[in-house]
Every structure is written in structure tokens, then in C-alpha cells.
Design goal:
The radius of gyration is 19 Å and the shape is elongated. The protein is mostly beta strands. The chain contains no helices and 16 strands. The N and C termini lie close together (7 Å). It has two domains: 117 residues, Immunoglobulin-like, CATH 2.60.40; 92 residues, Immunoglobulin-like (Sandwich), CATH 2.60.40. Helix content is 0%, strand content 40%. The strands form four sheets. Strands 1-16-15-12-13 form a five-stranded antiparallel beta sheet, with no helix packed on it. The protein has a four-stranded mixed beta sheet with strand order 3-2-5-7, with no helix packed on it. Strands 4-9-8-6 form a four-stranded mixed beta sheet, with no helix packed on it.
Length: 221
């Protein structure tokens, strides 16, 4: 009997993606964030699935008059020096959680409800299931050639309630197949597999936080 694939994640921006070419990924509109006096709005928008093109776009509110900028804590993105002039800044983000702030009115790691601090999140994308006779796999994508928030990635996975386990460390890969040749684990019905990613520059001290997890479950006899 044919198995049913159930994916517990939004696939708003996904068309069919062929591995390993992943050629069918579509762009989606970026999340718009207003730079105001003295806050970002929204400061903590909903997490989005990874997609091609701009992920987030910051623009100065016309009523804003102070010196502002947009800087991620580890400098994974930076709009430039604080300015009273226009701010029109976009980021194509790989999977991760990114705290950012205004260098004049915020602080690294500061609370988004206190000062100019914000958090944006991108989860990995589940690509088309790859089922080949005797084994089951699913594709995971966390970046592409256009992302500009890091060039290396840490990827971890979790099965059910077990602890998180490293899948890939400091990899330059932007996507991989989970379950092929039982690596990093065999995919079987009834279990939930979660994958999370963080992005980093060559200097691994400059990292994002871990992304919200992609969740995948295969059900069937």
C-alpha cells in the first residue's frame, strides 16, 4: 500500500523542487519592517519558511527623524552607519534566528519590547519527498546562492523527544537529503523528525541563533 506523506510545515512559497538541482524554488514577498522613533514594527514578525530572494525589508517611517540603523548582533547583516536619512535595506536570509538592533537606541541581545531591538526568524524548507522503493527520504533546504547572512551552516536534527544531534557542522552545503543510506537516520513511519539550522560567517564566532525547526512526519502502514 502506498504511504501517505504528512508535512507539518507551511509550504507557501514552494513549487516542486528537484534534487539536487533545487531549480523550482520561487521567491516570495519580504516581510516589511518599519524603522520608527524609537522602535521597529513589527519587532518580532512571524517566522517564515526559507525562500529565494529578499526575506526582510526595513524602511524608515516618514515621521521618523532620529539617527537609526539595522545591525545584526554578529554583523551577519548591517545597513550601515546610523543616519537621519532614508533607510531602505533588505536581507536575503538563510535559515536561522537573527536578533538585531539600532546602534543608537538598542543593544545586542536586548529585548524587543525595550528600545530598538528586533528578532526575525527563517526555518528550513522541506523540499519534495524523495521516495525510492526500499527507503524514504526528504529534502531540506536552508540557503541558496543569493543568501547573504553567512557562508557556513550548522545543521542539527531531533527524532521525537530525543536530544538534538549534529547532522552537519560548518558545512557550505545549502541543502541535503535526510535519510539517504540511513544518514543521518532512517526515516520510518510514525516518528517526527525535526531539523534546525544556524548560519555563520567564516569566523564561527559570528553566528545566528538556531532557526525554528522544520517538522516532518511519515505516516502509513
Amino acid at each position: 500500500m502506498r504511504r501517505l506523506i504528512v508535512v507539518a510545515v507551511s509550504l507557501v512559497s514552494l513549487s516542486v523542487i528537484a534534487a539536487p538541482a533545487v531549480a523550482g524554488l520561487l521567491a516570495a514577498p519580504p516581510t516589511e519592517i518599519s524603522v520608527s522613533d524609537n522602535f521597529f514594527a513589527p519587532a518580532t514578525p512571524s517566522a517564515q519558511d526559507f525562500h529565494s530572494g529578499a526575506s526582510f525589508h526595513w524602511q524608515r517611517d516618514l515621521s521618523s527623524t532620529g539617527d537609526h540603523n539595522v545591525v545584526q548582533d554578529a554583523k551577519l547583516f548591517n545597513s550601515g552607519e546610523p543616519t537621519t536619512g532614508p533607510i531602505d535595506f533588505s536581507v536575503s536570509a538563510s535559515a536561522g534566528t537573527y536578533h538585531y538592533y539600532c546602534q543608537v537606541h538598542g543593544t545586542p541581545g536586548g529585548s524587543p519590547v525595550n528600545g530598538m531591538n528586533g528578532i526575525v526568524k527563517v526555518r528550513p524548507l522541506q523540499t519534495s519527498p524523495l521516495t525510492v522503493n526500499e527507503f524514504d527520504t526528504f529534502g531540506v533546504m536552508w540557503a541558496d546562492a543569493n543568501t547573504n547572512t553567512g557562508s557556513l551552516f550548522d545543521v542539527r536534527y531531533r527524532i521525537g523527544g530525543r536530544p538534538w544531534t549534529t547532522w552537519l557542522n560548518d558545512t557550505a552545503k545549502t541543502h541535503a537529503t535526510f535519510g539517504r543510506n540511513d544518514r543521518p537516520a532512517k526515516v520510518v513511519p510514525g516518528k517526527t523528525y525535526k531539523v534546525a539550522v544556524r548560519s555563520e560567517k567564516t569566523n564561527t564566532a559570528k553566528r545566528s541563533g538556531w532557526s525554528p525547526p522544520l517538522s516532518y512526519k511519515l505516516t502509513g502502514p
